[in-house]
Amino acid sequence: MGFQFDISFFVYEIGIAIQYIPVVLLLSIVPLMVGLLLGTGIAIIRLFKVRALAQLFTIVVVFLRGVPLLLQLTILYLTVTLSFDSLAQTLDLNMTSKDISYTLIAVIGLSINATVYLSEVIRAALQSVNSGQYEAAYSIGMTSLQMLKRIVIPQALPVAIPLIGSNLIGLIKGSAIASLISVVEIINGTLFEANGNYKFLEAYLAAAIIYWALCILVERIVAFLETRVGVYGKGGVV
Amino acid sequence: MENIFLLSLFIDCFPKLLSRLHITLYIVVIALLFGMLLGTYIAVVRLYKVPVLSQLATAYVSFIRGIPILVLLYIVYIGLPLVIGAFGVNINRWDTMIFVMIAYVVNTAAFLSEIIRSAVAGVDLGQTEAAYSVGMTRLQTFRRIIAPQAIQIGIPALGNTIVSLLKDTSLAYTLGVIDVIGVIKAISSNTYRSLEAYAAAAFIFFILSSILEQCFNIISRKLGIKGTISGQG
Q1: Angle, CA of A63, A69 and A71, to the nearest 5°
Q2: Cβ contact, residue pair A70, B195, below 8 Å
Q3: B149: domain CATH number?
Q4: Do B205 and A66 touch (CB under 8 A)?
Q5: B2 pLDDT above the threshold of 70
Q6: Region A22-32: what's the mean pLDDT?
Q7: Is residue B232 part of a domain?
């Protein structure tokens, strides 16, 4: 038996995979935004050592960072589907667990995951700014908002941007795991087409090409942004 | 309302899950060992800009780092028998574990090669020149000057990669490997419940990655390295 690879079906599958790019973006961009927002909150709470909350979030972040995304998503999925029916009954909702969108569960799960990692990124970025910078800004009479806008953020961004970029790549690749809780994204979408002819290799390779293209795109955007925000980091004297 | 979480079952799951822990650790150790070998080779090829091989290595690293490990597992599992079958060798009967190992080695090698490459590139060129100027040979320069500094740069990223690798092994079950995750299916078909088993697995993975992180913290402190932030993926 020679090596059998159906090029035309592979090209067809790439077309199918492209159609599912919006689902991947939904599963990665939305968690990124949620993660940036909530992550900043958690980072600030932990940096300023807000009582009780800081300890709580430290435990949550440390725990979730040690648990594979697959388990986070599966546990969330099982908890929601198992508790939804009785919850809907008590609330008199005319819904069962079969009506819940798997995509929504995946988006929530990935958002929780992104929040955990991005809170660490933002914490590190804020910590990278020397405390003398804060003191200097206050000493010349800047308000907290002015200090953040003019002093802290311009110095923290060059640290944060590459890390946010690698987290976005992590989320794009992590969205593949959503296929295991029956979300129809690139993998399940292309596999569905291959169910009739068993050409699964073509399906997986097409999915791989699209994931690769998305990751390269993100890398390029990050590299571009880095040159833009890096202007403050240039050494030398004026 | 029926109970969605049974604490007694959660505790009962631990012995069953831990009895398959060696499979998970086996995958991690093999992937690290062979990944380090292949990764070093790729890094050397790229650092010395060996023609053709260097471009191939760059494409390999970019591709592997750009695709989800789940996709890579299936490409190796389905694709390798086809490719090798084209040369007239039938490997369809190989143990699934071999394909899983190959996938994780291929994946880990790409990530480790990047760490080694950027660690060596991170050592100032002046260090090499200074070593040459005092008459050190190439090997001496690498062993006494470059390697100690590169290790300092590379250790935190290496720690993160190993923790990610450990968490990534949770996907090996998709090919039918009965590791810590794979055994959950057996538990849930006996008890008709799976949430407890998944929670127990999450706990085991948390403990394992904490141990790994602590080990690397100790190594970093011994080497005098400041901490870094772990990434995803």
Answers
A1: 80
A2: no
A3: 1.10.3720.10
A4: yes
A5: no
A6: 96
A7: no
